[in-house]
Input
Amino acid sequence: MNNKSIFQIKAFNILYLAVLCEPLLRKRIEEKESMKYAIYIAFIIMTYCNLCLYADNITDTTAHRIGIILDYGLPGGVKSFSSLRGTANCCTDYEEFAGQTFGAGLQYYFPVNPKWSIRLKIGYYTNNLELRDVEDEQINVGGVLFDGQFAHNLSINYSNYFTQIVVGYVVIEDMTIVVGGKLMLNSELKYEQYERIIRPEDRGVFVDTETRTRNELSGEISNLNKVIPAFTIGACYDLPLNENRSAILSPEIAFESNFLSLIKDSDWNMYSIHFGITISINITQ
Output
């Protein structure tokens, strides 16, 4: 592979990183935090360029590697609670659930032998969870009661630092199965909630408040499990970025299951599917 081809591969992956980060940047622009996250994304791209320039001078493909991680997750889980302590929200159970996580970090890779390897990861996640449940209720429409519906809406936001260790086994060339554990240190958990009439869609009010929205609350949830261990299993595929394989892009997919509930007084068995990439370089001189 000539230098021109290597340059083209690097340019393509810089563009790929920018595209991957764009949804996060757009979200933060809407939240008036564009400058902070623009700098964050620029730092990732510049770090990648410098890693590749450094890696071009290294030829040992059996050595330890370090890299940067970008991760996007889709959380899910079995929810078995109808209210949160300290809030006025109460429903039979939250039936609808959606969310997303964004993460970044560092990885240290070292091979045990040609088949087995160990990967150590540290990083940071931001998490957004949306819960919803629909309930029947009598709605006041022009002084007459009608059978209607309203939705309990609960939004949860929190962040965490994590450390992870996984063992990898090469099943075929460049394809590795990874199994291991993760330990997450959670920060403060913030919530926003409200109840809103959804049927009729354009008219009617609650009987008790004479408004279409009620129980609008926000704040912090105190009974958060600060430390949560998790099990993870997944697979990754190594794509060399240069001729001597000293710089590698590794797409990864993984399943993760928590051993503890996010909130102490609930039985919330969370799991998540993660899609990530790691750009790593050989650090042997």
User: Anything to note?
Assistant: Confidence is low (pLDDT under 50) at residues 1-12, 28-34, 53-61. The chain has two domains: 1-56, 62-282.
